[in-house]
């Protein structure tokens, strides 16, 4: 984990230096006076993001999409707008264009999502961004890397789950993405399978995406935007009140629920509230360790259960950091040695991820793509998950698989 943290620091410096040059150029052209870089040596995420938003707002143009892009097909849509697969007519590059409807999206929200995404996109486990942001009469639009195999939700067999090997391969990359995010003082706030994009069905290359709800750690949000199985209990309870503090523990809880979903094909509960019988049973088990392990948790080994107890601690301050789960990758997680039908033809013994040497350099941007209770949990389906955004799934089955710099050795 140390290598990753050192790289994060390097990226932070690259990002700040590159941004300073762009910012000074814009300010000199516009006659805007500001603090020089040597007067603000300790830039934080808030400073950098504010400057990125300033720069983007000044340079964003209104264009006619059909003149610059060939729209191939729709990848998804929701209340926010839609995502289209497009080819840039000049560059010949395939990219995903995200259209955010002006009627429901403030320019500030658009700039925030785009700039956070761009700020983070040099990490190999976070979706890459093109330096493309513009507006039309109806939409704000930005361009990002196209994930050819869809998202993680598409490949989790309901009520079955993924193999332990595939789960570890995928969740390892998600953990590194979140650790990278948290090192930059940011909280994602919407961790779920739909926001983890995949580039092959075996999860050799995955990337975290969708930073529309991402906020600076320690800031206050006025309300909770919906309640889903990934929402931490303190937020489910907070929804009745006026606001809550954005903390890393929100992501840690969602990460734990995500891990359960990947390995079982079910949600552990529908809502983390006492009224939910599955959550209440889990709550009692965690508080009184002598009670019987709930049925849906019995397939996990003691090591896995210990990991879950750290990720899903009822008290937010007692949840572990994301990087703390990496120790458990050398342990077996499932009691049942029989793998699901779609499992890899490999063993589920100790697993280690080896990453080929590559820098996390943050170049300047332009083309940088790097309740009736039953014996099982709620099924993993859209109907049982009231998501923040209902997105139509892309069902293209002719996606081209691509290679990756990540190798999993077992």
UniProtKB/TrEMBL annotation:
InterPro entries: Kinase-like_dom_sf, Prot_kinase_dom, Ser/Thr_kinase_AS, Ser/Thr_kinase_Sbk1. Its main location: cytoplasm. Its EC number is 2.7.11.1. SMART domains: S_TKc. GO terms for cellular component: cytoplasm. It is found in: Cytoplasm. One of its GO terms (molecular function) is protein serine/threonine kinase activity. The keyword Nucleotide-binding applies. It holds the Pfam family Pkinase. It comes from the Eukaryota. This is Serine/threonine-protein kinase SBK1. It comes from Pelobates cultripes.
